[in-house]
Amino acid sequence: MKPGMFVHDFNCSWFTHPFMTNQLMIDNREMVDKVISHGIKELFIDTARGIDLGGETPPAKTGNPAKTVSRRKDETVVAEMPEEIATPGAPAIILDTFEENLARIKQRGIADEIPQALKVRERAQKLLENVFADIRSGKAIDIGPTHEVAEEMVKSAYRNSAAMACVAKLSDVGDGLLSHSINVCSLMVAFCRQVEMDAETTVEVATGALLHDVGMIKIDRNALENPDKMTPGEFQELKKHVVYSKEILSAVPGISSIALQVAELHHERYDGSGYPYGFKGDDIPQVAQMLCIVDIYDALTSKKVQKSGIKMTQGLKMLFEVASRGMLNPALVQTFIRCIGLYPIGTVVRLSNDKAGVVIRQNPESLLKPVVRIMYDLKKDCYIRPRDIDFATLPEGRENDKIVASMPSTKWNVDLIGYIH
Predict the structure, then answer these.
(1) Could you write out the three-class secondary structure of 140-152?
(2) Co-location of 52 and 170 in the same domain
(3) Are residues 131 and 98 in the same domain?
(4) Percent of the chain having pLDDT more than 70?
């Protein structure tokens, strides 16, 4: 590769290459280095629109157009090697599947992924501000930008499944509806990874999660801001927001049936007590069951939805209790808890030695023994130099150091994301 070449196809999924489009001019050496650093081994160039191998100017067009790459519906990419292009009739090489391409995405530690997750969250905020403004003014919604943000969220989850969920619970975009929508989407992409949902479906679920509450725009703002004082009549009006969401989104060209299911059915309950249709059990699509769990969890733990919010660990306990009463799918609730951990990343915990710290990593084999970054001495009432304790691998003599309780993060006038990062 060299500057001046025009890429016709990166020969990989959009998760693998670092650009927003599959076709573009390579303008500088930095772009070449980006391609190489993302592990791309080969790609197709268009010599009619850019330079050829060893050439400095595009060759003149001939009367024989380049052979078109053929694709079958059940193949992710079908490519022809240079030798095969020169040998008509040679068999095509079937490259790795979409999922196999995704498996090659380089994993990152959460500290490395959080800055990117914050950028994606900021982009999601600006997107939803524009979407809600368009709905209020009666303009049509363009699904393209929402789909792009959903793709970026899913990419982040493939680099580190915990980063978006962590950022969701420790950052605040200032508007309750915006914050809730982004939080739910962030948690859903991590949940989808946990249940091993394929990437394309995950993107559609994330798109629906971002837009799942657009119908709230048609609900009286005063009722939304005072949920604990809502009258029965106001609650009946509130329940119409899923119908409004369906009406708004059904008119959007290109929106998928999966995204519509997420928006329309996320208030159905496993025992049939939900709305708008009272569906029960597996009559509710799994993606809607999943979003119902995430929606409730964020409502419980968000200070913008509940006036103060409760601790993340308490929110998980309440989810488990609701599932035990049959309102939620118990198997999916357990999977969600495994996804974010009994002590979710970002949880502030108190130790038996009167120190406090923030959970920075999970131990999947032992959810009760996370990695904690100690930062505060509760006896001396002062911050201390941070140090990490992995409770799954405590050395001999340290067995009595235990997590005894979680603490509300609102008590700490400190940037917890900064401690994790």
Answers:
(1) CCCHHHHHHHHHH
(2) no
(3) no
(4) 77
